[in-house]
Amino acid sequence: MKKLCNLSTVFLRTLVCLLFHLKLAASSGGNDSFTFNGFGRLNLTFDGVANVTSDGLLMLTNMSTQAKGHAFYPTPLRFRNLTNGTIFSFSTTFVFGFISAYTNHSGNGMAFFVSPTEDFSAALGSQFWASSTKATTLNVTMAPIPMAKPHKPLLSATIDLSSVLLSDPMMNGVAEPLDYSLLPSLPRAKSNGKSKVLDIVLPLASTGLAVIIAGIIVFMVRWRIKYAEVLEDWELEYGPHRFSYRDLFIATKGFKDKELLGIGGFGKGMREFIAEIVSIGRLRHRNLVQLLGYCRRKGELLLVYDYMPNGSLDKFLYGQDKPTLDWATRFRIIKGVASGLLYLHEDWEQVVIHRDIKASNVLLDHELKGRLGDFGLARLYDHGTDPHTTHIVGTMGYLAPELVRTGKATTITDVFAFGIFLLEVACGRRPVDSIASGEELTL
């Protein structure tokens, strides 16, 4: 009878090492008892890829795929009593270890068995051995070093060994405990630096790429929400006069107060109102602020004018940080606004009623020349016809008395507002001003 160890592996590049320390206890004086504390000087028989390392380790596989190796005890062992045919019991104790190039993969295997032959040339590297369960009880226990083996076996099966046991006296006894201090050290698997780098870098790179893509998506969604605009089909014909909300947001540094001329409202339907705004954009006069276009976003309507470096006139009349205007400059501003108003009422192809003439709507260029601006409340009608405005809009203190009664804005109501504006510039007082007692003083 030959006793051998076999270990097979399924996965490529998996290194498996076996530390084997065996003791068999036999009858008849213990002649069949032996202990291996390393395999360096033993006369074992090998086949396949099995070999003994310089450290005395029995290595049964290597880095090859579907590799197998067998190690045979050099002399036969007898397992049956020749006189009465009794099969005696025997026991083995051994220590083994696995070293895998892929720690997360399985596939290593080890088998200790008895065989009547040493020829396993036809066996596969991943083949298992088994036999019918009839007569002999097989108990297998396992424990990590240095813990004692448990009393309850890990595997218990009844196996018929009569077909493979020779009719000679066999061993009968219990293997003595192993001295673990005599075991050789288990070698370390060679680290695959490239594989470890890939294992670390690839997940990090994938995670980083996913974070970048998610960030781009979030940025695009927030960008679309932040700069979302309202655009309807009827506005396509006004394309050249429409500004993007994004451009205006950037130009005004986020719509900071110092970058804005003013905030107001509008009265008619959006479509008609924008049509008039676009028409007013065709006005050309040296004393009118050029209306460049508009922008719509949700409930907001933004009007875009030429930039006036000196801002609005009221800042010079009432602001403490502005220089006082001399009479010549004031007179030039008044004449300029009058000239622009005449152009709106008489000289353009349609009559334009401004409806909100006041100092804060007069802007000053770099030469402090006055230009009438803010046409957000302006209305147009053809020459020779009557205006149909019925809503009272404008600023308190500039409203003509008849406008309050009839609600109809005309060129005459514009002239009344201009007269209040003239007095405002001349005396430097607001049309309606609060005094210390809390009452309002009307100019």
Automatic annotation (TrEMBL):
GO terms for molecular function: ATP binding; carbohydrate binding; protein kinase activity. It is a single-pass type I membrane protein. Residues 1-27 form the signal peptide. Keywords: ATP-binding, Kinase, Lectin, Membrane, Nucleotide-binding, Receptor, Signal, Transferase, Transmembrane, Transmembrane helix. Pfam families: Lectin_legB, Pkinase. Residues 198-443 form the Protein kinase domain. It is found in: Membrane. GO terms for cellular component: membrane. The keyword Signal applies. The keyword Lipoprotein does not apply. InterPro entries: ConA-like_dom_sf, Kinase-like_dom_sf, L-type_Lectin-RKs, Legume_lectin_dom, Prot_kinase_dom, Ser/Thr_kinase_AS. The chain crosses the membrane at residues 200-221. PANTHER family: PTHR27007. In the C-terminal section; belongs to the protein kinase superfamily. Ser/Thr protein kinase family. This is Receptor kinase.
